[in-house]
Amino acid sequence: MLVAAAVCPCPPLLVPELAAGAAPELESAREACADALRVLAAARPDRLVVVGPAGQDGRYPEGSRGSFRGFGVDLDVRLGRGGTTDAADLVAELPASLAVAAWLLDHGDWADVPMEALGVAEPLALERCIHVGRDIAGAAERLALLVMGDASACRTVKAPGYLDDRAADFDAEIVCALATADVAALKALDTGLAGELKASGRTPWQVLAGAAEDAGLDGRLLYDEAPYGVGYVVAAWS
Asked: Under CATH, what is the fold of the domain 2-237?
């Protein structure tokens, strides 16, 4: 059963070594992510599952490794502190969103509990997202979820998706749903519009909706900004 969830954005720029001179611009986002992870730890889960957008669906056991070398920085990360080298060698490298999650976990106040990560690809239909979330929630007595993903990438003319007048309203719906742990609102997201606005969090958020159906959690908004024309939201459910 889901006992807590943290929702965090997944830009590699959250990692200070990648942001370089721009690192201070996302310091408040990093602090909010750290606060969200503390909520997870306080719930005393017996398992953590990290969910994030990826190029293809895949599961990554604890100990899986990721790298930011593709972004020009010689920095490696590892998912959790457990796992085995052999298990990690059997799977592909962590996708960027899960590598960012691994970095956050390694630099936050996180309890040592078993964990794994799940990459979910676009397009993944709502029904499938809900099914995946239900399966995850049913696999542990006290489950915590770390859900990675960004809102629209079309908030300004300098955004990756350029300016789209629909982006601000779409993001406002996301913020409201995540701030209030509104499962129904997450299920009702317009998947087509989310794709057009390049909202990488749509699929992970709907997996969260499936996992949280009967959990009765409350939500709290910790961060809501679009510093580079991309909506970054941090929320904690407990």
From this structure: Protocatechuate 4,5-dioxygenase; Chain B (3.40.830)
